[in-house]
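JOB MANIFEST
job_type = single_chain_structure
chain_count = 1
residues = 372
[input]
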Amino acid sequence: MRVKSCELIWLRTPFKQSFSHARATRHCSDKILVLLNTCEGVTGFGEILARGYVSGETNDSIFNKEGPGLASEVVGRSFASLETLLNFIKTAWFEELWGTALLGGFELALLNAYAQLQPVNINRLLGPRRVSPPGNCATLGFECADEQIRRYVIQAKLIGATVIKVKVGLANDIERLCCLNSALKGRMPIRLDANGSLSLEQAIEMLVHCQRLPIQSLEQPFAADDPQLEEKLAELLKCTHVPLMADESLCTPTDLNRWLSSRVYQIFNIRVGKCGGLVGSIFMRDAALLAGLDIVAGTMVGESGVLNRASELLLTYSESLPYVEGLGQHKSLLMEDPVAFTENKFSPLGGCFELREDAVERQLIKRMKILE
């Protein structure tokens, strides 16, 4: 496979309703689609969904600098085998040559293009296909008012939720959690996600007051760049015994090695959009399991069908994953998805995406093509 050209398409897709947590309120999704055209006549699709407070990347910098830079490394390059392609991706990931959201977008496009041309042993790449049915995680954000919680619980049950994730960081967190548990009649586990917004004192107070609730874990209680992060996590675990989950602070191989060494997180949240793509996500998955840690996975809020497809594959070939939080959410959150997807059952990685040009025209911010 030889890459002939690269197109970057920066889109802003409105939401049907806003989504809020302690770090952001989103009314739309800013995304960059990566289209890699090959000399063999196929197009591979990837997606970049940058979050400054997660991987430190911005769409402006990616579109105007880092994206064209990585495109210049890819365009004109030939990949004679899947091993050659994977070596290129692994080198970039392990050496942290590019931001993880950016690298993940190009990785997905490369894998998608290659799998349309050559058979890919997906079990060798991702692992054996799962045999157990996955669970389902529903997310309760700040946009859900207290008086709407009971209605939200009914909706969560209708979609088959097996766990509820609650965004925390509000003054009335404890009251909201008690109200939610009452509506659930104590029959469903609750995950908490602070998005790095709490102080140590706030986290301890909340967990102590909620110790009779079925709290499963607390995700990212403190900011990823907190200089005392490890000490605070260790103290919080000591005081409350509630398992702690890494999210924003787990993006790169350096992050992975840090948390495997310190053991202050007991659960890793793996997201294809922030961990450098499928290859990085699989490595993090296997490293965590080998170390005896638990894992969950999640989507990025506002992703299109491209990243959503990658998350589906991660879940389908990960028996150890209980669920992928938010999987399929783009169908109910986005006003319109800019891509259409046709699955190739004989080559799961090689399914065909196509642009909905009318949707692209409505959502377009900028468009750029890099030629060989």
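[summary]
The chain has a mean pLDDT of 95.
Residues 1 and 96 are 24 Å apart (CA to CA).
exit_status = 0
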